[in-house]
Design goal:
By secondary structure, this protein is mainly beta. It has helices at 12-21, 23-26; strands spanning 28-33, 42-58, 82-86, 91-99, 107-114, 125-133, 136-142, 167-176, 181-188, 195-196, 205-207, 212-220, 224-237, 242-259, 262-272, 288-291, 296-299, 301-314, 317-328, 339-352, 357-370, 375-388. It starts with 11 loop residues before the first helix and ends with a strand.
Length: 390
């Protein structure tokens, strides 16, 4: 059984529809503004987010209920139907920002929650909490190694399983090289070392020693290309000795508008000991595996590739289709439950019913194969209603 894993110009009508459709990420409600001072500077308090209800129908058993996680498909496969309704993906954020007379915002504070509480509860969970001052950011938000723009308008909580997507506590510096170029560096909290140690060797413990180092460069805005790299350590010890393995990874992603209402997005990544950055493998033991015969850990390689197509059929109708494939490298310890390769694909149709309201039907197929070659697949239908703050 698997383990449970948590530059074409758009015509005006499509511009309006696209702005509405992005509402769940960018829409804001201004709560209060201070009076401008002598320099024209003021402070603004705002609320943003969305309320979402997901109704899901599964045709196979998976360890993950709220989002498609291919490595969580139960092996041997169980073709068991089940239904599930959730509001956990709803998000509420509160921000405070300084606004200068020219419209720039040199200082801001932001906090956001969703409702993915521990043990399947709907207790609030902190997503973002950070302070930004000019070129510096400190706090918890998306890793500098992640690319938030790669995600199109999809509703499944995880989406393409091969994406590099992680939130972390960090210190980040960002330099705007030009209107089209951004360079950034960060030191990030490594979190729990994602290493698999057999139960027969409890004397070995995972530990954190060094922060994660990342760098990224992005060229473009609407059409863009982004490259990023990460260095992280995998540390472990017993009562007599301690060891460190170096993990590294690189990611390349891009978005290109084919015409006024169609765009494609691509991302690929490769490295060893960096699986903690993957949207479905973080914390699941895929950075390294301890080999009792060699009495040491070996970092695992990971390759991911995904492609996304987004199209607007009309000002109120759109669809997204994507495919994602991931492969884990050599596994020195057979039988530890880790997956060798996994993939998922999805397609949806979305109706913008009003200024704030969206309705969606989405189908998602996932497939996985473990180190012993046993395969499993799963299919999910999802019906979503989402109301954004605006």
């Amino acid at each position: 059984m698997t383990r449970k894993i948590k530059n074409a110009q758009i015509v005006p009508t499509f511009t309006i529809a696209l702005a509405l459709f992005q509402a769940r990420t960018y829409a804001q409600i201004t709560i209060a503004n201070t009076e401008p001072d002598s320099t024209g500077r003021k402070w603004s308090v705002y609320l943003q987010g969305f309320l979402q209800t997901d109704m899901m129908l599964d045709f196979q058993e998976m360890g993950s209920k709220d989002g498609i996680v291919a490595p969580s498909i139960v092996i041997p496969q169980r073709n068991s139907r089940s239904g599930y309704i959730s509001i956990k993906q709803s998000q509420i954020g509160l921000g405070l920002k300084e606004i200068e007379s020219n419209g720039d915002s040199p200082a801001s504070v932001y906090a956001e929650i969703d409702f993915y509480g521990p043990d399947g509860t709907t207790n609030p969970r902190l997503r973002h909490a950070y302070v930004q001052w000019k070129k510096w950011l400190i706090g918890q938000t998306w890793s500098n190694f992640s690319d938030v723009e790669i995600f199109p308008n999809i509703f499944d909580f995880n989406g393409a399983n091969g994406a590099m997507f992680l939130r972390s506590v960090q210190l980040r510096y960002t330099e705007q090289l030009s209107d089209q170029q951004v360079l950034s560096f960060s030191l990030e909290d490594p979190g729990t070392v994602s290493m698999t140690i057999p139960d027969s060797h409890p004397e070995w413990k995972r530990k954190n020693m060094m922060p994660v180092l990342t760098a990224s460069y992005c060229h473009g805005t609407k059409d863009y290309i982004k490259i990023a790299g990460v260095l992280s350590s995998v540390d472990y010890e017993n009562s007599d000795e301690s060891h460190t393995k170096l993990g590294f990874g690189g990611v390349l992603s891009l978005r290109k508008y084919i015409n006024s209402n169609t765009n494609i997005r691509l991302q690929t990544s490769f490295g060893k000991g960096y699986a903690r950055n993957n949207i479905v493998l973080s914390g699941e033991g895929y950075d390294a595996v301890f080999d009792p015969q060699r009495n040491r850990a070996e970092t695992l390689s990971l390759f991911n590739i995904l492609g996304i197509w987004e199209h607007w059929w009309a000002p109120q109708w759109s669809s997204v289709a994507y495919y994602s494939y991931s492969q884990v490298g050599s596994n020195p310890v057979p039988g530890n439950g880790l997956m060798k390769r996994f993939q998922n694909a999805a397609i949806n149709i979305i109706y913008q019913a009003g200024k704030n309201l969206r309705l969606d039907v989405e189908g998602n197929y996932a497939r996985t194969q473990n180190a012993e070659g046993i395969k499993g697949d799963a299919f999910r239908l999802q019906f979503t209603t989402s109301y954004s703050f605006r």
